[in-house]
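step: validate -> pass
step: tokenize input -> pass
step: predict -> running
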Amino acid sequence: MIRTRGLVKRYGGVTAVAGIDLDVESGDSYGFLGPNGSGKTTTVRMLLGLVLPTAGTVEVLGAPIPKRARQVLHRVGALVESPAAYGHLGARANLSLLDAAGPGGSRRTRRARIDEALEQVGLAEVGRRPVRAYSLGMRQRLGLAAALIRRPELLILDEPTNGLDPRGIQEIRALLLALNAAGTTLFLSSHLLAEVEQLCRRVGVVDRGRLVLQDTLAALRAPTGAVVLRTPDPEWAVGLLDGELAERSGDRLVVRTDDPAALNARLVGQGIRITELAAQRRTLEEVVLDATTTSADRPEAS
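step: predict -> pass
step: emit ->
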């Protein structure tokens, strides 16, 4: 679905993207993560042919971009930064103009597709209200409707829940999960790690323009070889865990062990009460923070 090799973008003396190799397969739900200024949005723009690479190659749906962009991008739905619209027109009119402007949009099915897209994003009842009267969240929903109007095989979304309230985030999350389950490939650029954890099976992490990590979420969050133990008797437990204790925070202990059942039996046998015993797994936040750096010199491109 998406393949880049040695992808580079320079703006004068600033390198925004420095040799990224992305691999997104059909049916993937892929989270593209990284700090502000790490090159995420610049990369997304190159995927869509909106920015030309300085070096390297981009393939989307098997076609080289931008050379054959017009032949395949009607099969791609995209939302990049703030969605654009004519403020004096309603959602239906805006979507109709957008659909008529490019290849691949059948006039015969246009009305049905517009109705479906507005229903999917929760704007079915406000289709004729002028967009200038929309809130930020409603404009974001309209941008998503525009991405969905061609019933795309691939969705490339940059911060799709920006401006939405908690209910709206939940609704869009459910929509994206349903679309992916039905076969639509998702490529989601976001800084909301909790959203990515709930939506994506694979992630790529970019830092200072370089792809520093690309793997399945399950692999990145695999057990660390330690267990998390909670007990109302932490001082007593610490005394029995000499050499095994890796970390302590109040009643939460991280213990190195290759046999959690034996550890539990040993502590309980000494009269220590156990309220939680589970394999330690790193959070996505910990994974991203470990893989990235912070710098005041980070370029502004995101």
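step: describe -> The longest strand covers residues 2-11.
step: cleanup -> pass
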